[in-house]
Specification:
Layout lengths: L2 H9 L6 E3 L2 E8 L2 E8 L3 E3 L1 H17 L5 E10 L3 H6 L1 H17 L4 E10 H5 L7 E4 L4 E3 L3 H8 L3 H8 L9 H7 L10 H10 L7 H8 L5 H11 L1
Parallel strand pairs: 3-5, 4-5, 5-6, 6-7, 6-8
Antiparallel strand pairs: 1-2, 2-3
Helix pairs in contact: 2-4
InterPro entries: ClpP/crotonase-like_dom_sf
Organism: Pelomonas caseinilytica
Protein name: Biotin-independent malonate decarboxylase subunit gamma
Length: 233
Amino acid sequence: MDWHTLATRLFGAGHGITRDGDFLHGTVEFDGEPLSVIGTTGHAPIGVALALAQARAVLDVLTHNPGRALLLLIDTQGQQLRRRDELLGINRAMAHLGMCIDLARRRGHRVLGLVYDQALSGGFITSGLIADACDALPEAEIRVMRLPAMARVTKLPEALLAQLSESNPVFAPGVANYVAMGGVRRLWDGDLAQALRAALADAPTQDLRAEDGAARGGRRLAAGIVQRVLDAA
């Protein structure tokens, strides 16, 4: 689904969201309350400029609208693979974006992520995965690393990883696998406005992804290990 269709279904034709290149931003009214929308479109590669633009928008909400909820619309192919951005410190710019989102959460802003098209790699990690909760549309595409790249990094045969991905969501791309692992809380289907209403109403204040992954059978060991570390601290 393209961003404009999504915005129209959520907020009506006069939604007020603006597109500047691959950057989406604006303030909408939802159930009589203002809601800030920040995001990307066009399978955007997240470079220094785009990361800083999103961070600036988050900080503006913190400064001028304390407590206002934020909705992150996610459509990205990951970080910009360009020498210029590497030299300018893309890692630090993306970390800054993630820290701004985390600061918003710590100051009482509800922050929701919605993967409406594509979410890959670092562009997803520093946005939707840092939100209070990250949801997705059923047709969305989510993955952190393709199997060929995973094979190069892990030094494991791609055929073995493909076999593992059939039974273990950790190795497999796809929105259903991220739901199973707890990375995506729920899928929005049918009435999207009602789905947003429910997401705002029950946005968690604690990170429950490990517990969700254990309960859904997609990440069976993480929650137990976290608890053992906490018990030993």
